[in-house]
Write a structure and sequence with these properties.
Blueprint lengths: L2 H25 L1 H5 L3 H5 L1 H10 L4 H20 L5 H11 L3 E3 L6 H13 L5 E5 L2 H17 L4 E3 L10 H8 L3 E5 H11 L15 E5 L1 H5 L7 E7 L5 H10 L7 E4 L4 E4 L1 H11 L10 H15 L7 E4 L2 E4 L17 H9 L7 E7 L1 H5 L4 E6 L6 H8 L3 E3 L9 E2 L3 E3 L2 H17 L4 E5 L2 H13 L5 E3 L7 H6 L7 E5 L20 E5 L6 H8 L9 E8 L3 H6 L1 H11 L14 H48 L4 H18 L6 H11 L16 H23 L2 H33 L10 H30 L1 E4 L5 E4 L2
Parallel strand pairs: 1-12, 1-13, 2-4, 2-5, 3-4, 5-12, 14-20, 15-20, 16-18, 16-19, 17-18, 19-20
Antiparallel strand pairs: 6-11, 7-8, 9-10, 21-22
Length: 795
Amino acid sequence: MSPKERRGVMNALKLRRLRRILKKINARADEMSALTDAELSAKTAEFKERLQSGKTLDHILVEAFAAMREADKRILGLFPYDVQVLGGLALHFGYIIEMKTGEGKTLTATLPLYLNALEEKGAILVTTNDYLAKRDAMEMSPVFSFMDLKVGVGVYEEDEEVDAKRKREIYASDITYTTSTALGFDYLADNLAGDKKGKFLRPFHYVIVDEADAVLLDSAQTPLIISGVPRVQSNLYDVCNQFVLTLHEEEEYHFNREDKAVYLTVKGGHYAENYFNIPNLYDSSYFELNRHINLALRAHHLYKKDVDYVVVDNEVKLLDNRTGRILEGTRLQSGIHQAIETKEGVKKTKDSRSVASVTYQSLFNMFPKLSGMTGTGKIAEDELISTYRVSVIVIPTHKPVIRQDFPDQIYVTLPEKLAATLTYVKKLHAKGQPVLLISGTVDIAEIYSRMLLQEGIVHSVLTAKNVAKEALIIKEAGQKGTVTIATSLAGRGTDIKLGEGVAELGGLAVIGTERMPNSRIDWQLRGRAGRQGDPGLSQFFVSLEDELVQQYGGKRATCYFEENNHHQRSDYGQPLRQRRHQRILKQAQAKSEDRSVLARQSTIKFDESLRVQRQKIYALRDELIYDEKNLSQKVDHIVDEVISQYLASNSGLTERSLRRYILDNFSYQFQEASLPVSIDNQVAVKRYLKSLYYSEMSRKAERLQTEEKKSEFLRLSILHAIDACWLEQVDNLQQLKNFVSLRQAAQRSTMTEYYQESLRSYDRMCQAVKETVLRNVMLSTIESDGNTGYSIYFV
């Protein structure tokens, strides 16, 4: 049995189990239908009581699903189909469900959200963008309100100020609709809070991730980072940008397109030394110059305008390579964003330190119960199982899919492909069939737009530069005679419904102008046509000049292109019909997918060290915030440790070095005459240093007056020390991640080197935290604010 057949058998077995439960739910339909509105609404209180008396969710599952299904019918006018109930059951049991576009995933989610919210621990639905989160919450909240559950929305207007109290109310809701980005940043912000008032998240419980493969896999390559204090702006960006512009490929630098690696050759290194008039580029004293040269090389060769980013209003904005959306508020770290800004000649933004960071893998693995919905999850099931320990169930469609998916039309050159695509669009448009033309990049979308304008064909364009009327453009894309050009539509969430008479014309025609980096996106695009049993077609046009083929097609594709890239060919303008070209395309996409998987695995491996450290630090912070017992004893122990460590590492202690140590760590009012008689007697020195500590604590205790205020002072001293040192550690690991790969040149394992360095860095941080606690306690200033309390100033 092949792996594909085995997966099919497993899927059938899972569905059989769910259908047995579905049968019981259907049997309760008449019972629920006979209830009055008040009786149906009261079921929520009844279910909660049963759970509190010892029943589990599985005990009340059948009745709860039947009740919520009836509520959906009464309030929304939508009675979930059997296949939607199957999907809801799978979501409850912690699966990712594959449901085709237009099958009603939003309604499906109401059933497991309701059931899991009954435990009063919170149920969260994560979507891909703000619009969908707000839309789904607004459309579904009436039915949840009817069933006596509160709905919160975790996304806000751009200029809206939201404090911890408001966020606490949102996350205290029975059901919260939010985005993956908002949830991730809220998690980081919650763990930066300095006291109970600043905390707003409760422990994670149950989550449904919409467009699960996109969020959990595609978006998971880039960690979420909160930036803080900006660095001093470097003056090396401009000069290194000018230097890189003078280089020649394969002479002064090598660019490996497949591995996305670019670096100076030996000749390039010598050229740099002459250019900058330095003796050795790789000497440690020229580390920053070397770093900025590498940043400039990456900016010019690894990041493409209108593919990876756009320039809008004199500002570089990153693009989501899956949807073509602008990633608002997201910037590349470690100087690469500033290198791109220098390349584009726009004003450079500040390069900020990383204050906190988390990957989606770490974030969603914190949920005891994770589930998701997508139109194309089965293809990526192995990776979802290995990364998140969740498998995929394919839910059958309510009506058979009758869309026609035609074989790819492959051409040698880009102009041939453009001409063929235009001819096809004109043919479909002539009979009034709506066309959705999808490109992989903004610039190609604009080329098609100009071509259609020349032909006098009215059309709409939806790219990262034009998202203001996104929902309206997509909604109207199924009307007769409509032509819509868009970048990748995965995760946009608005169904394309066919206008009157369109079905008779063949339904919506989805035309892909290139194969996407992975086949899941291709199937998502195809899925825009043929929803709910509608007719439709999909057709992809490809050329050997496309980036996917150029990057991953291999030597055979490159050689064939170079030999036939001319107008004199007898078959110019004709598609390539040999099966080998279909194989080349398939292999190129498979290789691209493998690269993406490896990149995500690398992200997970790099994050593992930070994840462990982050959990320890956040647990320690929470312990300080929620449990303030024995802080005096803890600080006494820390001070004793720091003094012992100092004396152990300074066996040749002198009066001068001891005085300096005291001034830096213990007291600004130190009197030289009070030093111990013998500096050589470490016991006496330790006793003296501890006496300084106890004296200062007595003064501060007298000033603070109560044990409660003294405990608060110690808590803040420790918390401030942890935060300052952790900020430095997060930033160090971000920098380390970018440059540890250079050690491959010395035949060293990148991950081994990273783990070793990060562990050493963590040990240094732990010691730095203790030393900073000592300085915070000893050198801080406490000032009275009259009736309002005290202000504490740390050094």
